[in-house]
Amino acid sequence: MPNYETVIGLEIHAELATHSKLFCNCDAGFGGEVNTHTCPICTGMPGVLPVANLRAIEYTIRAGLAMNCQIATYSKFDRKNYFYPDLPKGYQISQYDHPLCYDGYVDFELEEQAKRVRINRIHLEEDAGKLVHGDVTGDKNYSYVDFNRSSVPLLEIVSEPDIRTPEEAIAYWRAVKEILEYIEVSDCNMEEGSFRCDANISLRPTGTDPLGIRTELKNKNSFQHVLAALKYEENRQTRILDDGGQVKQSTLLYDVETGRTSPMRSKEEAHDYRYFPEPDLVPFEVDPEEVKRLETELPELPSTIRQRFVEEYELPSYDAEFLTATRYIATFFDQAARSSGNPKACSNWIMGDLSALLNSAGQTIEDCQITAGHISQLVEIIQDGTISGKIAKDVIADCFNSGKMPTQVVQDKGLAQISDTSELEVIIDQVLGRNPKSVADIQDGKMKAIGFLVGQVMKETRGKANPQLVNQILRQKLQD
Q: What is the pLDDT of residues 365-375, one digit of tens each?
C-alpha cells in the first residue's frame, strides 16, 4: 500500500498460571462445572474485601523482566468502571497510572530480519466472567453467565504502535507467547481463552508522523483470525481514505465466516472508564531485592537459546528455530546433544523420525516415552557402528512404543550390525557369484553397479551388514 503506512499496536492478555484467583482463594484453573469456582468475593457480593495474590504480582514482575521492562517500586490497583453482564461488580480491578512494569521491548525475527516492538506497560488485572449463549437448560433464547473465570489474574501487555504489517503483528504476538511459556507464568492456551489480544490498527499517509484514526479488533484468540482481520481492516481503511472519507474510531468484531469486520461500539478512551484508586486495596511497594531475586530465577530465554544453538552447536537457523519451539524441546535437545557429542545428528532425529512418530500418535514430546537419553544413545550406537542408520529407524519406533532404551531393543531383536569381516566375505562372495553381469559392468568401468551389489548384500543380511565395510570389501575383491 504505497500511499499509506499501516500502524498496529497490540494489547495482549494472558491469564496467569496461579492456583488461586487474584483476590480470593477460589480455584483459578480452567473448566469445572458452571459457577463452581466462585465465592462472594469473585462474584462481587456487597461488603466483601479483596486480598491481592502475591504470586500473581511475582509472575507479573517475571514477565516484565523477561520483556526488558522497568519494574515500578510503587504500584497500586484501580477501578475501571463499565457495565457488562459478565462483570459482577460493575467495575474491574485493574491498574491505570502506576502499572507494575513499563518501558520494555521484545526482540524477534520475521523472515530473517531482526525486529523490535517496544512495550508501553504490563499491568495486572482481574479477568471477567464468560457469557454462555443458549441451550444450557434446553432454552436457546437465553444467555447465561459463568463466573468461574471471574477474577482469574490477567496480564495485559500493551505495545507501542511500532508494528507496520499484519504479519509483523503475529510474529510479535508469537514471540510474547513463547516468552511467557518459557518463564512458566502462563500456559497461553488459546483454545481455553487464556491467551488472546486486542489489535489496534490505523493508516496514515506514507512519510507523515501523526497517527491516523484507529479501530480496535476485540478479543481474539487465534493467530490466523487476527492476521485475516488485520488484513481486511487494512484494505477497508485504504478504500475509505482513497474515497476521501474518514475512518471512524470504533471497536470491531471479526466474523470468521464472512471474513469481514463489523462495528461493536464506539472506541472508548481512558476517561470513559472513570478510573480511580481501588479503595479496598492499599498501594504497595516492590522490594528491589525481590526483583533481583526474581531476575536471577529467570530461565534462559528462547532468543538467547536459539543464538547459542547456532553458535555453540553450529546448527542451521531452521533447526534452532524448531528446537526452541518450547522450553521442554530446547532442554530435551540440549541434553541429548551434550551427551552424544553430535548435535546435528540429534537434531535430525528429533526433527525427523521422532516428530513423525509424535504426529502419527497425536502426542507431544512431553507425553511420549522417548527421552533425551534415548536420542543420545541412538546416535552413539550409530556412530560406533553397532547399527546402521536404516536399522536405527526401526529401533526408534520400537523405543517410542515400548519405552526401552535403544541398546536393549538392539539386543532383544538381534539387530546389531554385522561387522565381522570373515562373515561378510562369505556373504559377499555368494552375491558376486549370483551377479556376474554386475561384476563385468564394474570391471568395464561402470562403477554404479557397486551400489546394486551393496544393496544385495544388505538384503541378504536383512539390513544388518555394515554398509561401509561391505563397500570396502567389495571394492577390494573387484580390484583383485
A: 999 999 999 99
